[in-house]
Amino acid sequence: xxxxxxxxxxxxxxxxxxxxxxxxxxxxxxxxxxxxxxxxxxxxxxxxxxxxxxxxxxxxxxxxxxxxxxxxxxxxxxxxxxxxxxxxxxxxxxxxxxxxxxxxxxxxxxxxxxxxxxxxxxxxxxxxxxxxxxxxxxxxxxxxxxxxxxxxxxxxxxxxxxxxxxxxxxxxxxxxxxxxxxxxxxxxxxxxxxxxxxxxxxxxxxxxxxxxxxxxxxxxxxxxxxxxxxxxxxxxxxxxxxxxxxxxxxxxxxxxxxxxxxxxxxxxxxxxxxxxxxxxxxxxxxxxxxxxxxxxxxxxxxxxxxxxxxxxxxxxxxxxxxxxxxxxxxxxxxxxxxxxxxxxxxxxxxxxxxxxxxxxxxxxxxxxxxxxxxxxxxxxxxxxxxxxxxxxxxxxxxxxxxxxxxxxxxxxxxxxxxxxxxxxxxxxxxxxxxxxxxxxxxxxxxxxxxxxxxxxxxxxxxxxxx
Length: 466
What we know:
This protein is α+β, with helices and mostly antiparallel strands. It contains 16 helices and 16 strands. The two termini are 48 Å apart.
């Protein structure tokens, strides 16, 4: 019988153990920081009803959905009524609407699960990937103060991940739409067209956005009959979206320098000022967040504050964490008004990019110690020693099949296990063990009574050195 080739489909990230450990540690850091800020865990099924997921049809998302169908349904030619989730926001909306009367508001949840999209196979694009989200959902209303809390969470997460200097960039959609309105661009679809283009300025540059506005938007049917997109209007838009701050006071000054505008612009400016000031009070250094009036995030979903986080020395990676404020999370499922604010870290793509850029190293084994086998007759002694170590919280593996000692050392080295214990006849007679540190290529002898204490010291030093 011919063998079936062992292979994975394109667009998935399958890691070797030590790389998986590095990825898992990033998940642990994110989870730990989310919990520090008082967010509680939620998990939703990977499969949802199609009509729940696809509350809006005809968009790009629908063309990327993986539908789910049983063998029986396939044989009967039935249309699939189930699909894999493509993000965590739509399932959250369904979850909150379904459990609304059992939840406490504001509802603060974190969710770290895989999502699925039918992405075209290409480098750095994934069909299965982890998203790590937090959201604060209010009932009827939600203070803008929560908009200032999320950058503090971002700062806490990426400071502990220690992947390099980063900057949290902020804007407000109300401010942007109000400014466009002051230029005579009052139609919502017109504003969306402009937002879509200016959001690309950090990717294609000022000249690229200028060309887009001239050739695409100015020719769009919605701008006919006295189009508002004159050369002067385009220049004003570009001046606006190139505003960046260098300090908190500079941000305030530049917001004031925009001049008066419509009500929505004034509301957005006031919200942005309050959020920027509160971020500092949450303990985020001014060096780590700035005003960036080109940040738009999406097309229709966000209504107020928006965020993007980038690595200072690796801008080519793009946003490593993004999100913002939305007016009504679950309008498709409930009549209740549920405003919220949230952020998302696409961890699979981020990990892949960081590893590709040499910013994330291979992880260290989760096994602390390997107890070697010198004599099968002494197996009870080896197992007793391992039990002692495990009871002390030291992750320990025992060699159960024996073999040459050199081969056992080679196994430990390849598996990434740093400390190897030798318990031979001489050691047993003297009441000691030999501990070999494979990383330092060093070894020492220690009494059985002092072994746990000595290993704890070595493991603590190893953790500091990571």
